[in-house]
Every structure is written in C-alpha cells, then in structure tokens.
Amino acid sequence: MSLGGSTTPDEKLARLYPPVSRRHGQALERVLLQATADGLVGSMTTQPLEWPELRWMVRDPVSAMAHVQMALRLGYGPEGPASPRRPVADLLDFV
User: Fold this and answer.
1) For 13, 23, 54, 93, which has the most beta carbons within 10 A of its beta carbon?
2) Cβ(70)–Cβ(29) under 8 Å?
3) pLDDT exceeds 50 at position 87
4) Are 43 and 73 within 8 A, CB to CB?
5) pTM, two decimal places
6) What φ, ψ does residue 50 adopt, rounded to 5°?
7) What's CA 66's distance to the chain center, in Å?
8) From residue 89, how far is each of 31, 72, 84, 92, 93 by CA, in Å?
9) Residue 17 CB: number of other CB atoms within 10 A?
C-alpha cells in the first residue's frame, strides 16, 4: 500500500524538468550536434555571469527581466583525441 502514491522514474524526471526546460535542453543538443558536424567545438560557461555588471550587459534588452543562465562559445579548436570505444566483440556475442 502506498500512501503518497508512486511514480515511475520518468514521472519523477518530468517533475524535475518541466517541458520548457526539456525543450531548451533539446535545442542546445541540436546546436551542439550541428556545430560538431560543421567542425566546430563548443564550451559552456556560467562563471562570468556571476558578476552583476556582466550579467546586466548580456541581459535581454527587450524584457530585461530574465537573467542569462549560461554562455555558449562556439569556434574552431584543436582536434582532441577520439573518445575511447570498447571493441564490439566485448559487447556482443556473434553466433
């Protein structure tokens, strides 16, 4: 018997990340994937936005109510090493 009700992990995540936040995340994912496909690298930063003067400078000039949460930098950078991959034989059994 459950007094408080039960939720599946998906329902719990849905409460933590409302639809608007999920759409923002999906949009960011698309931008980063397209940037990678175009040979760009991206990095995200929040530290500079901790300074009130800078946060004021990068605000939306139309609404001026919302705060910028993150800065996204896109550009060309050195090519890093490829991500390590497990051999397929370690994961699949071929019959």
Assistant:
1) 54
2) no
3) yes
4) yes
5) 0.56
6) -75, -15
7) 19
8) 33, 38, 15, 5, 7
9) 13
